[in-house]
């Protein structure tokens, strides 16, 4: 029983790391109706910017502020150069645009900051702690706490401020939002900035675990099953989806893996997502209609 | 209405085509300040397209719009909202996942002065503005007898109530011109009468200029001061309700050949 609990808790905590990545997708999907393939590159770019600055001896807080400013500028640039000219185009056009964007962002990052692996030390002890007999990774626990804080902050922003009212309005009905004087271009810039910030947090946590390097942009692939299971339009869904994927991977590896010769983690989440596509195509919390009209 | 004041809105020689199909041909008319102007005509006559041009969703192929003395070849939706052109949609375009109060508060967007950073950080000016907006929203909800629904999620309300919420959202920002696309559609007789009374009150008390599209000819002829009849994108008639009722062309094209009797 202890082993089961330990596996489950470890999986759930690891899952919050997936949730963090998935939330960035959900924000952008809700506000601008596009599956942002470049989310992984943005995450990498954000983490790389921060690490490059701190490597140069810039104090952490200053580096953080500069990174945030850079992300906001990037968001404004994306809105001006990609979203605005392509407004009212089909979802596929927008998706292809973000595909191109992904490589531009990655290439820019490489050109500016080099391609070697950068170590990132967030100062979190990675010693396990014990809860009774159950061993828990301190790093995972911290990551989960950060994810929780981020989600609370986002829900306050969305539910308690008028900015949040405008954001939800644009997500709900774009033409109605325009007709009452909500500046949707501005809203897009803000949402992409926030998605960049979420990417920064996710990038720093993932980077602290596996080094800040170009393969970091591949964590987006981990977010896909999370989004399919949780739904593309719900932050709650992204969290639950991440937890489901984390727990399933961890439990699957321990209890199913041995029968299949081990090493099922790389594909198990996708198999699970496939099963969800059959049963609940919109995900656990997604809206049934995916089409935006 | 023989006011000497310049029109609130003038549509001048507007034409609109979709891929070669003419939706509106060389249409011109004027809307006097503080009047209710009704656009009537069969489906496909170009009524909704015209409203979409007036608030900037469609770009006309030619012609111009003169709103409060300023000339526009096209409106931008945001520009229209900021100049005070409010809009109600044919199918409710409310933010259905949000509460009634939040919908109405969103309607005040054009009056927002606090910057978004102030908003995000909940700085004093943003908080004061939020409070002011909330009060104003509740005032307007009171006007529509909707206070008890303030915190209800819109999607859970009956259609007729949603329609009132949409009207509340459209007028909360004190528009200079209100465009309504079939505000009475999909309602029973009692609900229609209620909304029609509200529209008349808004027009009278708030001195709102209103352009509306409506199919219920009986209500239109009682409610409107001025009726413009469209057919296949052309203006068939333009005048006071009494003249429209007796216009043989209108009767032939729209009212189905027989003269309709409208109870006074």
Automatic annotation (TrEMBL), chain A:
Record flagged with keyword Transport: yes
Keyword Membrane: yes
Recorded superkingdom: Bacteria
Signal sequence segment: none
Predominant location: membrane
Membrane topology type: Multi-pass membrane protein
Record key words, sorted: Amino-acid transport, Cell membrane, Membrane, Transmembrane, Transmembrane helix, Transport
Protein family (similarity comment): Belongs to the binding-protein-dependent transport system permease family. LivHM subfamily.
Protein name: Branched-chain amino acid ABC transporter permease
Species of provenance: Mesorhizobium qingshengii
UniProtKB/TrEMBL annotation, chain B:
InterPro entries on file: AAA+_ATPase, ABC_AA/LPS_Transport, ABC_transporter-like_ATP-bd, BCA_ABC_TP_C, P-loop_NTPase
Residue ranges of domain ABC transporter in the record: 9-257
GO MF annotations, alphabetized: ATP binding
UniProt KW keywords: ATP-binding, Nucleotide-binding, Transport
SUPFAM superfamilies reported in the protein's UniProt record: P-loop containing nucleoside triphosphate hydrolases
Transmembrane region(s): none
The protein's name: ABC transporter ATP-binding protein
Source organism: Mesorhizobium qingshengii
């Amino acid at each position: 029983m202890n082993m089961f609990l330990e596996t489950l808790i470890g999986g759930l905590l690891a899952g919050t790391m997936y949730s963090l990545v998935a939330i960035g997708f959900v924000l952008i999907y809700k506000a601008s109706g596009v599956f942002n393939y470049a989310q992984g590159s943005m995450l990498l770019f954000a983490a790389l910017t921060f690490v490059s600055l701190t490597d140069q001896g810039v104090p952490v807080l200053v580096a953080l502020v500069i990174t945030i400013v850079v992300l906001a500028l990037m968001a404004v640039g994306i809105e001006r150069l990609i979203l605005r000219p392509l407004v009212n185009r089909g979802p596929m056009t927008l998706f292809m645009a973000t595909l191109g964007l992904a490589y531009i962002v990655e290439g820019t990052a490489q050109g500016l900051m080099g391609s070697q692996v950068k170590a990132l030390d967030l100062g979190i002890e990675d010693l396990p702690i014990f809860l009774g007999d159950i061993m828990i990774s301190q790093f995972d626990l911290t990551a989960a706490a950060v994810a929780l804080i981020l989600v609370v902050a986002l829900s306050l922003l969305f539910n308690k401020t008028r900015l949040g009212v405008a954001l939800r309005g644009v997500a709900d009905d774009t033409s109605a939002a325009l007709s009452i004087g909500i500046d949707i271009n501005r809203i897009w810039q803000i949402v992409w900035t926030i998605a960049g910030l979420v990417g920064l947090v996710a990038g720093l946590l993932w980077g602290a675990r596996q080094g800040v390097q170009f393969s970091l942009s591949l964590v987006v692939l981990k977010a896909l099953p999370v989004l399919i299971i949780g739904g593309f339009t719900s932050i709650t869904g992204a969290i639950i989806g991440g937890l489901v994927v984390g727990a399933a991977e961890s439990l699957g590896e321990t209890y199913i893996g041995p029968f299949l010769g081990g090493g099922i983690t790389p594909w198990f989440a996708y198999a699970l997502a496939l099963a969800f596509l059959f049963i609940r195509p919109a995900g656990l919390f997604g809206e049934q209609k995916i089409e935006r009209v | 209405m023989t006011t000497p004041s310049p029109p609130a809105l003038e549509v001048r020689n507007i034409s609109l085509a979709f891929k070669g199909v003419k939706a509106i041909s060389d249409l011109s008319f004027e809307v006097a300040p503080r009047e209710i102007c009704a656009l009537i005509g069969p489906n496909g006559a170009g009524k909704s397209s015209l409203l979409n041009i007036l608030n900037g969703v469609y770009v006309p192929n030619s012609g111009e719009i003169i709103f409060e003395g300023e000339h526009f070849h096209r409106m931008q939706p945001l520009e229209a909202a900021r100049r005070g052109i409010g809009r109600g949609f044919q199918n409710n375009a409310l933010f259905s996942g949000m509460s009634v109060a939040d919908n109405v508060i969103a309607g005040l967007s054009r009056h927002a002065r606090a910057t978004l950073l102030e908003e995000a950080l909940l700085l004093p000016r943003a908080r004061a503005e939020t409070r002011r907006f909330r009060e104003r929203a509740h005032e307007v909800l009171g006007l529509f007898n909707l206070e008890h629904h303030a915190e209800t999620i819109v999607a859970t309300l009956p259609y007729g109530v949603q329609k009132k919420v949409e009207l509340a959202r459209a007028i909360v920002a004190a528009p200079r011109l209100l465009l309504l696309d079939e505000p009475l559609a999909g309602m029973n007789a009692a609900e229609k009468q209620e909304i029609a009374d509200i529209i008349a009150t808004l027009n009278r008390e708030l001195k709102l200029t209103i352009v509306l599209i409506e199919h219920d000819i009986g209500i239109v002829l009682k409610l409107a001061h001025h009726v413009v009849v469209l057919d296949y994108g052309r203006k068939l008639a333009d005048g006071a309700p009494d003249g429209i009722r007796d216009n043989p062309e209108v009767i032939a094209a729209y009212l189905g050949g027989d003269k309709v009797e409208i109870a006074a």
